[in-house]
Amino acid sequence: MAWPPPGSSSSGSRGGGAGAAAPWGGRAAPDPPQGGGGDSRARLPPPPPLWALPEELLLLICSYLDAQALGRLAQVCRRLRFLSSRDVLWRRIARGCLNSGFTQLGTDLLMPWMELDGEYLYLSQAENIQAYQLCAEGTGLQRHPQAIFSGHQEDVCRFVLVNSHIVSGGGDGSIVLHKLHGSYSIKFSAHEQEVNCVDFQGGLVVSGSRDRTAKVWSLSAGRVGQCLHTVQTEDRVWSIAISPLLSSFVTGTACCGHISPLRIWDLESGQLLTCLGTDFHRGAGVLDVFYETPSLLLSCGYDTYIRYWDIRTSTRKCVQEWEEPHDSALYCIRSDKNHMIASGSSYYGVVRLWDKRQTRCLQSFHLSSPTSSPVYCLRFSTTHLYAALASALHVLDFTTS
């Protein structure tokens, strides 16, 4: 059967009869309704009422689905696949998967922080801080925590343990104070964004945030949670520490502008006292700072260097520096306040031991090969070193060869 010539009709007249023959010899199509403007094409059906809802409401509805239901929803159509793949829906599910089960000497962690106090190790896991008793030989932890300190609605970013008190800053922008022995706890809103770092000395708390401010808080009786000073740092604050003299505090920032990432502020007035260093490159953010004495300070960060500062001699240049051999960012640093320094790298769980009297690394440990994870935090004693990675807590025993 030949294709009809242009302008011809296979039934002889437009719209005549119940169903003109289709040009491909198939079943006849129904006649279009009369008075519709003469358009022979079938009109598209109206969109489903579901798509009339705003995106925020659709995401709220989808937030009640588990992983299996979201996967099935993604198979319905392209638009639902795009909606069900949004990060905001999977973030809660991902956190639940990352924080379950023991691996090696600890649970799966998410950017953990820890403090070592005698025979207990305090470890942040998601929005909680858990206290684990160390085994008799110090080579492991008891499987179940002895105590759990909660209060944050988001992950704990950092915390400190001072004088039987835990002070923590969280992703919910709040600061929580817990007393180790008792049910006493206080929570107050501190920053508009997550509290990246805190320190606590002499009844005062200092905090640094992604909202580009550092704040000084009172914990004295009758003034608990009162903000004494707000410092505009003009950059995200990653690390903070109070001087042992309780007269000043240092902030380590992201170094995204033209300001030194290391600055010292007066604790009483909140005024800038001095800047440390002049040769930082853009992006050389300081991730950790540690006071050895009121005048000696260690810092490390994204520019792969450990720097040793003596404020008595010079604030423009550090007195000594060590470079990470594999050009990795340094997430954390600790010192025995004598000759030994321990650092944690951003790749493959590398922990390095340094001697201040030498220019090169003394010893290194690769804790997470072949998978890569930063060393988020480390603490050590005379016999053991504890390193917290994304997937496990590792213990190094210095007493065995």
What is the strand and helix layout of this fold?
Layout: H1 55-62, H2 67-73, H3 78-84, H4 87-98, E1 102-103, E2 106-107, E3 114-117, E4 120-125, E5 128-133, E6 147-149, E7 156-162, E8 165-170, E9 174-179, E10 185-189, E11 195-201, E12 204-209, E13 213-218, E14 226-232, E15 237-242, E16 248-253, E17 262-266, E18 272-276, E19 286-291, E20 296-301, E21 305-310, E22 320-323, E23 330-335, E24 340-345, E25 350-355, E26 361-366, E27 377-380, E28 384-388, E29 393-397
Antiparallel strand pairs: 1-2, 3-4, 4-5, 5-6, 7-8, 8-9, 9-10, 11-12, 12-13, 13-14, 15-16, 16-17, 17-18, 19-20, 20-21, 21-22, 23-24, 24-25, 25-26, 27-28, 28-29
Describe this structure in words.
The radius of gyration is 31 Å and the shape is globular. It is mainly beta and 401 residues long. The longest helix is centred in the first third of the chain and has 12 residues, at 87-98. The chain has a 4-stranded antiparallel β-sheet, with no helix packed on it. Strands 7-8-9-10 form a 4-stranded antiparallel β-sheet, with no helix packed on it. Strands 11-12-13-14 form a 4-stranded antiparallel β-sheet, with no helix packed on it. The chain is built from 4 helices and 29 strands. Residues 1-33 and 98-108 have low confidence and may be disordered. Strand 24 (340-345) and strand 25 form a beta hairpin. This is F-box and WD repeat domain containing 4. WD repeats lie at residues 188-223. Residues 47-93 form the F-box domain.
